[in-house]
Amino acid sequence: MELKTPYFLIDEAALEKNLRILKSVSDASGAKILLAQKAYSCFATYPLIAKYLDGTAASGLYEARLGKEHFGKQTHVFSPAFREEETEELAKYCDHVIFNSPAQAKKFAPFFRARNISCGLRVNPERSTQQGHAQYDPCAPCSRLGTTILEFDESVLPLLDGLHMHTLCEQNSDALEETVEALEEKFGKYLSRLRWLNLGGGHHITRGDYDIPRLLSLLVRLRERYGLQIYLEPGEAVVLNAGTLVSRVLDIVQNGMDIAILDASATCHMPDVLEMPYRPPVRNGGAPHEKKYTYRLAGPTCLAGDIIGDYSFDAPLCCGDEIVFEDMALYTMVKTNTFNGMPLPAIALKKEDGSIRVLKTFSYENFKTRLS
Q1: CA-CA distance, 59 to 332, in Å (whole number)?
Q2: Are the C-beta atoms of 250 and 295 separated by less than 8 Å?
Q3: Both 89 and 208 in a single domain?
Q4: What is d(CA 39, CA 32) in angstroms, rounded to the nearest whole number?
Q5: How buried is 353 (Cβ within 10 angstroms: 0-12 exposed, 13-18 middle, 19+ buried)?
C-alpha cells in the first residue's frame, strides 16, 4: 500500500514481541506492568497491549480518560499538581492517584479515598543514576518531582496506600537496584505499612542487553520483604524498536558538506532528537564517514537547528529517495507539532500478515483548528 511520506509505521509483530517479554516479567515476579501513555498513546493498538499488560499510567486528566475508555484495565494517574476543578471528572477514570507532595495528599486524598480510589505519594530517593541528561533526571538537584525524606510528613501515612518512585530513563536493572537501595534507606521503615510500591518507568526491559534476572530478583525481594504489590510503568520498553518514521529526500544542497533536506522534521516530528538529544537509527545508514557518502539529514522548517544528524550511505542520495528512521514509536507521535504549518505524518499499522492499515491521516484542518 502506498502512503504519502512522511508517515509513522507501527510494527504489530515487533510490538507483540516486546509485550511477551514484559508479560514474562510480570508472571515471574508478580509485579503488575502498566503502559506509560506519555511515551505512546496510539489507542488503536490498546486491545493488543491489554492482552499482556495490567493497565495504563497517565500524566493527567486526558491520558487517564484515554486509558479508561480504550484500555479498560487499571488506570493510575500522577501529576506534579492536580487541579481542583478536574478532580470530579478524574475520579471517573482512575483507580490509583499519586500525589507529588504531602500538601497535595492532604488536600485531595480524602476526596479520592471516599470514592474507593487508592492514593499514593511520589517520593524522591535523591540518588541520581543518570549522567548528561539533567532535564530527564527527577533526582537532579532542586527537582520538583517527588517528596524528599526531609519534606516527608508522616501525618499523611493514614491517607496513603502506596509510594511511587520514578527515577530512570532508558536504563538497566543495575540503576533500578541502586535507586531502590536509596529508597529503602530513606523510606524503608514505611513500606511494610503500605499496600503497593510503584517503581515508575525508564526500565529498558525489552532491550537486548537488559538484565532481566537481576530485575526479577529485586522485584521478588521487595514483594516478599514488605508484602507489597509492585508496579512498573514502562513506556519505551513497550514499543522499543516497534515503529519507524518513513521520509523522503526533497533536495540536496552543499555548504561545507552535502545536506539532504527531507520532508520529515526533527522540530515537528521527532522533537527528542533536539530535546534529549537523541540520534535515531537510519535503515542502511551508518555513522559519519563509516560508509562512502556522508550527508547531514535536515528538516524543511525555517529553524536553522532543524537537523536530525549526520549519516553515511553506500550510494549517493538522490531526490525522492526514501529515508527510514527506526525506533520511532516512542516519544514521537505524542510530541508532534505543526510549527511552520508543517503537516503531521500519517500513522499506519503493519499487521502481522504484512498488510498495512492506515490509522490516522491529518490535513490542513488539523493545523488551522488548533488556534482558532
Answers
A1: 17
A2: no
A3: yes
A4: 18
A5: exposed
Determine the pLDDT at residue 186: 98
By CB atoms closer than 10 A (0-12, 13-18, 19+), residue 209 is: exposed
Give the residues across from 75 on adjacent strands: 56
Distance separating alpha carbons of residues 229 and 175, to the nearest angstrom: 21
Q: What is the pLDDT of residues 169-216, one digit of tens each?
A: 999 999 999 999 999 999 999 999 999 999 999 999 999 999 999 999
Separation between Cα atoms, residue 289 and residue 313, nearest integer Å: 9
Residue 124 placed within a domain:
yes
Q: Which domain holds residue 296?
A: 241-368
Residue 249: give its domain's CATH number.
2.40.37.10
Is 7 within a domain? Answer: no
**Considering the domain boundaries, does residue 211 fall inside one?**
yes
Using a cut of 0.70, tell me whether the model's pTM lies above it: yes
- The annotation status of 137 as a binding-site residue, yes or no, is no
Which CATH number characterizes residue 70's domain?
Answer: 3.20.20.10
Joined grid coordinates for residue 311? 549519516
- Determine, yes or no, domain membership for 8: no
Alpha carbon distance 192, 162 (integer Å): 10
Q: What's residue 1's pLDDT?
A: 55
Cα angle 19, 24, 283 (rounded to 5 degrees) comes to 40
Q: For 4-58, what is each residue's pLDDT tens digit?
A: 999 999 999 999 999 999 999 999 999 999 999 999 999 999 999 999 999 999 9
Q: Report the SS3 class of residue 254.
A: strand
Please check if 27 is assigned to a binding site. no
The verdict on 162 and 304 lying in the same domain is: no
Query: Which pLDDT score is estimated for 97?
Result: 98
- Spell out, as residue ranges, where the chain has pLDDT lower than 50: none
Residues 190 and 279 in one domain: no
Among 181, 212, 239, identify where a domain stops.
Answer: 239
| Residues 22 and 76 occupy one common structural domain | yes
Query: Which of 278, 207, 201 minimizes the C-alpha distance to 242?
Result: 207
User: 372 burial class (0-12, 13-18, 19+ CB within 10 angstroms)?
Assistant: exposed
- Count: domains in the chain: 2
Look-up: residue for cell 504531602? 102
